[in-house]
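[Meeting: bench + compute handoff]

Bench side (C.D.) handed over the final construct sequence. Compute side (W.E.) agreed to return the predicted structure before the next meeting so the bench team could plan truncations. Sequence as handed over:
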Amino acid sequence: MADHINVIGGGLGGLTAAIACAENGAAVRLFEAHDRLGGRGRATAPPYVAHEGAHVFYADGPHYKWLKKRGFVKGLGWPGPIAMATLLHFRVDGRIRALPPMRMLRAQARKGLTAPIDIDFHTWASQRWGEQTARHMANAISVVTYDAETGRLSAAFVWDLFQRVLGPNPPAIRWVSGGWQTVVNRMVARATELGVQITTRARIDSLPTDGPVIVATDIAAARQLLNDTDLTWTSGHAALLDIAVTRDRKDTNLVFDLDDGGFHESYTMQDATIAPKGESLYQLQMPVRASEPHAQAHRRLESLADQAVPNWRDRTTFHRTAVAKDRTGALDLPGLSWRDRPAIERGDDVYLVGDMVAAPGMRAEISINSALTAAAAATAALQATHTSR
Protein backbone atom coordinates (compact mmCIF):
# COMPACT_ATOMS: atom_id res chain seq x y z
CA MET A 1 0.00 0.00 0.00
CA ALA A 2 1.32 3.45 -0.94
CA ASP A 3 2.75 5.39 2.00
CA HIS A 4 4.72 8.15 0.25
CA ILE A 5 4.90 10.41 -2.81
CA ASN A 6 7.75 10.17 -5.33
CA VAL A 7 9.04 13.35 -6.95
CA ILE A 8 11.32 12.87 -9.95
CA GLY A 9 13.40 15.96 -10.62
CA GLY A 10 14.92 18.39 -8.14
CA GLY A 11 14.57 21.67 -9.97
CA LEU A 12 12.39 24.54 -8.87
CA GLY A 13 9.22 22.62 -9.77
CA GLY A 14 10.31 19.44 -8.03
CA LEU A 15 11.38 21.27 -4.89
CA THR A 16 8.11 23.19 -4.80
CA ALA A 17 6.11 19.98 -5.20
CA ALA A 18 8.12 18.15 -2.53
CA ILE A 19 7.74 20.99 -0.02
CA ALA A 20 4.02 21.39 -0.70
CA CYS A 21 3.39 17.65 -0.31
CA ALA A 22 5.43 17.48 2.90
CA GLU A 23 3.65 20.51 4.34
CA ASN A 24 0.40 18.63 3.74
CA GLY A 25 1.69 15.79 5.89
CA ALA A 26 2.87 13.39 3.19
CA ALA A 27 6.11 11.44 3.25
CA VAL A 28 8.13 12.44 0.18
CA ARG A 29 11.03 10.94 -1.72
CA LEU A 30 12.77 13.23 -4.21
CA PHE A 31 15.14 11.94 -6.90
CA GLU A 32 17.52 14.18 -8.87
CA ALA A 33 19.76 12.93 -11.68
CA HIS A 34 22.48 15.54 -11.10
CA ASP A 35 24.66 16.03 -8.05
CA ARG A 36 23.07 19.41 -7.26
CA LEU A 37 19.45 20.42 -6.83
CA GLY A 38 17.89 23.46 -8.45
CA GLY A 39 17.73 22.65 -12.16
CA ARG A 40 17.78 25.83 -14.25
CA GLY A 41 17.55 27.85 -11.05
CA ARG A 42 21.13 26.92 -10.22
CA ALA A 43 23.92 29.47 -10.58
CA THR A 44 27.67 29.29 -10.88
CA ALA A 45 29.66 29.26 -7.65
CA PRO A 46 31.16 32.50 -6.30
CA PRO A 47 32.97 34.71 -6.95
CA TYR A 48 30.93 35.05 -10.17
CA VAL A 49 27.30 34.07 -9.61
CA ALA A 50 25.72 33.73 -13.06
CA HIS A 51 22.41 32.14 -14.06
CA GLU A 52 21.34 30.46 -17.27
CA GLY A 53 19.83 33.50 -18.96
CA ALA A 54 17.84 36.30 -17.35
CA HIS A 55 16.54 35.33 -13.89
CA VAL A 56 14.25 37.66 -11.97
CA PHE A 57 11.04 37.28 -10.00
CA TYR A 58 7.76 39.08 -10.62
CA ALA A 59 5.78 39.75 -7.46
CA ASP A 60 2.35 39.81 -9.10
CA GLY A 61 1.10 36.25 -8.89
CA PRO A 62 0.36 33.28 -6.62
CA HIS A 63 3.81 31.80 -7.25
CA TYR A 64 5.48 34.75 -5.53
CA LYS A 65 3.04 34.77 -2.61
CA TRP A 66 3.90 31.13 -1.98
CA LEU A 67 7.65 31.81 -2.11
CA LYS A 68 7.40 34.95 0.02
CA LYS A 69 5.26 33.31 2.72
CA ARG A 70 8.02 30.77 3.31
CA GLY A 71 10.85 33.28 3.31
CA PHE A 72 12.43 31.92 0.13
CA VAL A 73 12.66 35.35 -1.54
CA LYS A 74 13.60 37.49 1.46
CA GLY A 75 16.56 39.86 1.28
CA LEU A 76 15.83 41.76 -1.92
CA GLY A 77 18.47 43.75 -3.76
CA TRP A 78 17.73 47.05 -5.48
CA PRO A 79 19.70 49.30 -7.83
CA GLY A 80 20.88 52.56 -6.29
CA PRO A 81 18.86 55.75 -6.90
CA ILE A 82 20.91 56.88 -9.91
CA ALA A 83 20.97 53.40 -11.47
CA MET A 84 17.21 53.04 -10.95
CA ALA A 85 16.47 56.46 -12.45
CA THR A 86 18.53 55.67 -15.55
CA LEU A 87 17.82 51.94 -15.68
CA LEU A 88 15.89 51.35 -18.90
CA HIS A 89 17.55 51.64 -22.30
CA PHE A 90 16.50 50.49 -25.75
CA ARG A 91 18.43 49.67 -28.91
CA VAL A 92 16.58 51.16 -31.88
CA ASP A 93 17.95 51.46 -35.42
CA GLY A 94 21.38 50.43 -34.19
CA ARG A 95 21.62 53.01 -31.39
CA ILE A 96 21.08 52.70 -27.64
CA ARG A 97 18.73 55.34 -26.24
CA ALA A 98 16.89 56.06 -23.00
CA LEU A 99 13.35 55.91 -24.41
CA PRO A 100 11.56 53.59 -26.82
CA PRO A 101 9.83 55.01 -29.92
CA MET A 102 6.74 57.10 -29.15
CA ARG A 103 4.32 54.60 -30.66
CA MET A 104 5.65 51.86 -28.43
CA LEU A 105 5.29 54.17 -25.43
CA ARG A 106 1.65 54.63 -26.35
CA ALA A 107 1.21 50.86 -26.52
CA GLN A 108 2.89 50.48 -23.12
CA ALA A 109 0.40 52.93 -21.64
CA ARG A 110 -2.68 50.99 -22.80
CA LYS A 111 -4.37 49.60 -19.72
CA GLY A 112 -7.38 47.30 -19.73
CA LEU A 113 -6.93 46.25 -23.35
CA THR A 114 -7.28 42.53 -24.05
CA ALA A 115 -5.91 40.68 -27.05
CA PRO A 116 -7.41 37.68 -28.87
CA ILE A 117 -6.04 34.18 -28.52
CA ASP A 118 -6.66 33.09 -32.11
CA ILE A 119 -4.70 35.85 -33.92
CA ASP A 120 -0.92 36.19 -34.06
CA PHE A 121 0.56 39.12 -32.16
CA HIS A 122 2.16 40.82 -35.17
CA THR A 123 -1.13 40.99 -37.07
CA TRP A 124 -3.08 42.21 -34.06
CA ALA A 125 -0.52 44.80 -32.93
CA SER A 126 0.09 46.05 -36.48
CA GLN A 127 -3.59 46.92 -36.82
CA ARG A 128 -3.33 49.17 -33.76
CA TRP A 129 0.15 50.67 -33.79
CA GLY A 130 1.67 49.81 -37.18
CA GLU A 131 4.00 47.04 -38.35
CA GLN A 132 7.23 48.63 -37.14
CA THR A 133 5.88 49.16 -33.63
CA ALA A 134 4.53 45.60 -33.62
CA ARG A 135 8.04 44.35 -34.40
CA HIS A 136 9.55 46.56 -31.71
CA MET A 137 7.08 45.26 -29.13
CA ALA A 138 7.68 41.63 -30.08
CA ASN A 139 11.45 42.09 -29.94
CA ALA A 140 11.20 43.84 -26.58
CA ILE A 141 9.39 40.89 -25.03
CA SER A 142 11.80 38.35 -26.53
CA VAL A 143 13.58 38.70 -23.19
CA VAL A 144 10.85 36.37 -21.89
CA THR A 145 10.09 34.27 -24.99
CA TYR A 146 13.71 33.65 -26.11
CA ASP A 147 12.18 33.53 -29.60
CA ALA A 148 13.28 35.36 -32.76
CA GLU A 149 9.72 35.37 -34.16
CA THR A 150 7.70 36.39 -31.12
CA GLY A 151 5.22 38.12 -33.43
CA ARG A 152 4.02 34.70 -34.65
CA LEU A 153 2.75 33.76 -31.20
CA SER A 154 -0.78 34.25 -29.88
CA ALA A 155 -1.66 37.92 -29.44
CA ALA A 156 -3.16 37.19 -26.02
CA PHE A 157 -0.01 35.40 -24.88
CA VAL A 158 2.44 38.10 -26.01
CA TRP A 159 0.28 41.05 -24.91
CA ASP A 160 -0.01 39.64 -21.39
CA LEU A 161 3.78 39.32 -21.17
CA PHE A 162 4.29 42.80 -22.63
CA GLN A 163 1.94 44.33 -20.08
CA ARG A 164 3.61 42.54 -17.17
CA VAL A 165 7.14 43.49 -18.17
CA LEU A 166 6.67 46.92 -19.76
CA GLY A 167 3.08 47.95 -19.00
CA PRO A 168 1.74 50.88 -16.94
CA ASN A 169 1.37 49.01 -13.64
CA PRO A 170 3.88 49.51 -10.81
CA PRO A 171 7.00 47.44 -11.58
CA ALA A 172 6.67 43.96 -10.10
CA ILE A 173 10.25 42.89 -10.79
CA ARG A 174 12.23 41.60 -7.81
CA TRP A 175 15.89 40.62 -7.40
CA VAL A 176 16.94 38.36 -4.52
CA SER A 177 20.38 39.09 -3.09
CA GLY A 178 22.69 36.20 -3.86
CA GLY A 179 20.68 35.23 -6.92
CA TRP A 180 18.36 32.30 -7.48
CA GLN A 181 20.90 29.92 -5.97
CA THR A 182 20.08 31.51 -2.62
CA VAL A 183 16.40 30.72 -3.19
CA VAL A 184 17.23 27.15 -4.19
CA ASN A 185 19.38 26.69 -1.08
CA ARG A 186 16.54 27.90 1.13
CA MET A 187 14.10 25.54 -0.56
CA VAL A 188 16.45 22.59 -0.12
CA ALA A 189 16.86 23.47 3.56
CA ARG A 190 13.08 23.66 3.99
CA ALA A 191 12.54 20.32 2.23
CA THR A 192 15.16 18.69 4.45
CA GLU A 193 13.58 20.23 7.55
CA LEU A 194 10.23 18.73 6.53
CA GLY A 195 11.78 15.28 6.25
CA VAL A 196 11.87 14.97 2.46
CA GLN A 197 14.17 12.08 1.55
CA ILE A 198 16.48 13.52 -1.13
CA THR A 199 18.61 11.33 -3.40
CA THR A 200 20.94 12.95 -5.93
CA ARG A 201 22.73 11.28 -8.86
CA ALA A 202 19.65 9.10 -9.18
CA ARG A 203 18.56 8.67 -12.79
CA ILE A 204 15.06 7.18 -12.89
CA ASP A 205 14.26 5.22 -16.06
CA SER A 206 10.78 3.99 -15.18
CA LEU A 207 7.92 5.27 -13.06
CA PRO A 208 7.87 4.06 -9.45
CA THR A 209 4.79 2.01 -8.58
CA ASP A 210 4.87 2.39 -4.80
CA GLY A 211 2.89 5.64 -4.57
CA PRO A 212 1.76 8.76 -6.43
CA VAL A 213 4.44 10.13 -8.77
CA ILE A 214 5.18 13.74 -9.66
CA VAL A 215 7.39 14.02 -12.75
CA ALA A 216 9.25 17.33 -12.54
CA THR A 217 11.88 16.89 -15.24
CA ASP A 218 12.24 18.82 -18.48
CA ILE A 219 9.72 17.99 -21.17
CA ALA A 220 12.15 15.80 -23.17
CA ALA A 221 12.99 13.60 -20.18
CA ALA A 222 9.32 13.44 -19.21
CA ARG A 223 8.44 12.33 -22.73
CA GLN A 224 10.74 9.32 -22.38
CA LEU A 225 9.77 8.56 -18.80
CA LEU A 226 6.05 8.64 -19.58
CA ASN A 227 6.55 6.96 -22.97
CA ASP A 228 4.42 9.63 -24.63
CA THR A 229 5.71 10.90 -27.98
CA ASP A 230 2.97 13.55 -28.05
CA LEU A 231 4.36 15.21 -24.94
CA THR A 232 5.78 18.36 -26.50
CA TRP A 233 5.24 22.12 -26.74
CA THR A 234 6.72 25.14 -28.46
CA SER A 235 9.64 26.81 -26.68
CA GLY A 236 12.45 29.27 -27.39
CA HIS A 237 15.98 29.14 -28.76
CA ALA A 238 18.64 31.68 -27.79
CA ALA A 239 22.36 32.32 -27.56
CA LEU A 240 23.59 33.33 -24.09
CA LEU A 241 26.59 35.39 -23.00
CA ASP A 242 27.73 36.06 -19.44
CA ILE A 243 30.59 38.47 -18.79
CA ALA A 244 32.19 40.17 -15.81
CA VAL A 245 34.31 43.24 -16.46
CA THR A 246 36.17 45.85 -14.48
CA ARG A 247 33.60 48.51 -13.67
CA ASP A 248 33.17 51.56 -15.90
CA ARG A 249 30.55 54.27 -15.54
CA LYS A 250 30.06 54.27 -19.31
CA ASP A 251 28.54 50.78 -19.20
CA THR A 252 24.78 50.44 -19.63
CA ASN A 253 22.88 48.47 -17.02
CA LEU A 254 19.85 47.27 -18.98
CA VAL A 255 19.00 47.21 -22.70
CA PHE A 256 15.92 45.94 -24.51
CA ASP A 257 17.03 45.31 -28.10
CA LEU A 258 14.09 46.39 -30.27
CA ASP A 259 16.08 45.68 -33.45
CA ASP A 260 16.98 42.00 -32.97
CA GLY A 261 15.21 40.82 -29.81
CA GLY A 262 18.35 40.70 -27.68
CA PHE A 263 18.58 41.65 -24.02
CA HIS A 264 21.34 42.91 -21.75
CA GLU A 265 21.17 43.26 -17.96
CA SER A 266 23.54 44.01 -15.11
CA TYR A 267 23.18 41.80 -12.05
CA THR A 268 25.67 43.69 -9.91
CA MET A 269 23.72 46.95 -10.10
CA GLN A 270 21.39 45.54 -7.42
CA ASP A 271 23.69 42.95 -5.80
CA ALA A 272 27.39 43.65 -5.36
CA THR A 273 27.95 40.22 -3.77
CA ILE A 274 27.80 38.25 -7.04
CA ALA A 275 31.12 39.51 -8.42
CA PRO A 276 34.41 40.68 -6.91
CA LYS A 277 34.66 44.27 -5.72
CA GLY A 278 35.14 46.76 -8.55
CA GLU A 279 33.64 44.45 -11.18
CA SER A 280 30.28 44.31 -12.95
CA LEU A 281 28.54 41.12 -14.06
CA TYR A 282 26.28 41.20 -17.13
CA GLN A 283 24.07 38.54 -18.68
CA LEU A 284 22.99 38.86 -22.30
CA GLN A 285 20.85 36.83 -24.65
CA MET A 286 19.94 36.84 -28.34
CA PRO A 287 17.19 34.71 -29.94
CA VAL A 288 18.45 32.40 -32.67
CA ARG A 289 16.76 32.91 -36.03
CA ALA A 290 15.38 30.03 -38.10
CA SER A 291 18.26 28.08 -39.68
CA GLU A 292 20.80 30.51 -38.21
CA PRO A 293 24.12 28.96 -37.11
CA HIS A 294 24.78 29.42 -33.41
CA ALA A 295 28.06 31.15 -34.21
CA GLN A 296 26.21 33.85 -36.12
CA ALA A 297 23.73 34.36 -33.27
CA HIS A 298 26.66 34.74 -30.87
CA ARG A 299 28.25 37.32 -33.18
CA ARG A 300 25.03 39.34 -33.12
CA LEU A 301 24.98 39.01 -29.35
CA GLU A 302 28.56 40.24 -29.06
CA SER A 303 27.59 43.22 -31.21
CA LEU A 304 24.98 44.15 -28.60
CA ALA A 305 27.62 43.75 -25.89
CA ASP A 306 29.96 46.04 -27.84
CA GLN A 307 27.40 48.83 -27.59
CA ALA A 308 26.21 48.21 -24.03
CA VAL A 309 29.66 47.51 -22.52
CA PRO A 310 32.27 49.32 -24.64
CA ASN A 311 35.67 47.60 -24.85
CA TRP A 312 34.38 44.71 -22.77
CA ARG A 313 36.87 42.27 -24.29
CA ASP A 314 39.79 44.26 -22.85
CA ARG A 315 38.20 44.33 -19.39
CA THR A 316 36.82 40.80 -19.13
CA THR A 317 37.47 38.85 -15.93
CA PHE A 318 34.78 36.17 -16.45
CA HIS A 319 33.31 34.89 -19.71
CA ARG A 320 30.81 32.16 -20.50
CA THR A 321 28.66 31.30 -23.52
CA ALA A 322 25.82 28.84 -23.99
CA VAL A 323 22.78 28.04 -26.09
CA ALA A 324 19.32 27.42 -24.65
CA LYS A 325 16.93 25.51 -26.92
CA ASP A 326 13.50 24.08 -26.11
CA ARG A 327 14.04 24.67 -22.37
CA THR A 328 13.04 28.29 -21.86
CA GLY A 329 9.36 27.96 -21.00
CA ALA A 330 6.15 27.46 -22.94
CA LEU A 331 5.21 29.61 -25.94
CA ASP A 332 1.58 29.63 -27.07
CA LEU A 333 0.80 29.76 -30.79
CA PRO A 334 -2.41 31.38 -32.12
CA GLY A 335 -5.50 29.47 -31.03
CA LEU A 336 -3.77 28.01 -27.99
CA SER A 337 -3.52 29.07 -24.35
CA TRP A 338 -1.89 27.62 -21.24
CA ARG A 339 -4.94 25.39 -20.79
CA ASP A 340 -4.05 23.55 -24.01
CA ARG A 341 -0.55 22.57 -22.89
CA PRO A 342 0.26 19.04 -21.65
CA ALA A 343 -2.02 18.19 -18.73
CA ILE A 344 -0.71 18.05 -15.17
CA GLU A 345 -2.82 15.01 -14.27
CA ARG A 346 -1.67 12.08 -16.42
CA GLY A 347 -3.83 9.38 -14.85
CA ASP A 348 -3.01 6.51 -12.49
CA ASP A 349 -1.79 8.98 -9.83
CA VAL A 350 0.94 10.37 -12.10
CA TYR A 351 1.38 14.15 -12.37
CA LEU A 352 3.50 16.33 -14.64
CA VAL A 353 5.22 19.52 -13.49
CA GLY A 354 7.32 22.00 -15.45
CA ASP A 355 7.45 25.22 -17.42
CA MET A 356 5.67 23.75 -20.46
CA VAL A 357 2.54 22.30 -18.86
CA ALA A 358 -1.03 23.47 -18.28
CA ALA A 359 -0.52 26.18 -15.67
CA PRO A 360 -0.48 29.99 -15.91
CA GLY A 361 2.53 32.28 -15.64
CA MET A 362 5.80 32.69 -17.49
CA ARG A 363 8.80 30.39 -17.37
CA ALA A 364 9.59 29.36 -13.77
CA GLU A 365 6.20 30.63 -12.61
CA ILE A 366 4.60 27.86 -14.67
CA SER A 367 6.75 25.30 -12.87
CA ILE A 368 5.80 26.61 -9.43
CA ASN A 369 2.08 26.90 -10.20
CA SER A 370 1.95 23.45 -11.78
CA ALA A 371 3.87 21.99 -8.83
CA LEU A 372 1.34 23.33 -6.34
CA THR A 373 -1.52 21.87 -8.38
CA ALA A 374 0.25 18.52 -8.69
CA ALA A 375 1.13 18.44 -4.99
CA ALA A 376 -2.48 18.99 -3.95
CA ALA A 377 -3.68 16.22 -6.26
CA ALA A 378 -0.92 13.77 -5.28
CA THR A 379 -1.53 14.37 -1.57
CA ALA A 380 -5.25 13.77 -2.05
CA ALA A 381 -4.50 10.56 -3.95
CA LEU A 382 -2.22 9.33 -1.17
CA GLN A 383 -4.80 10.14 1.49
CA ALA A 384 -7.42 8.28 -0.54
CA THR A 385 -5.32 5.10 -0.45
CA HIS A 386 -5.02 5.41 3.34
CA THR A 387 -8.78 5.88 3.68
CA SER A 388 -9.50 2.80 1.59
CA ARG A 389 -7.36 0.53 3.76
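W.E. noted at the follow-up: The radius of gyration is 21 Å. C.D. will use this when planning the next construct.
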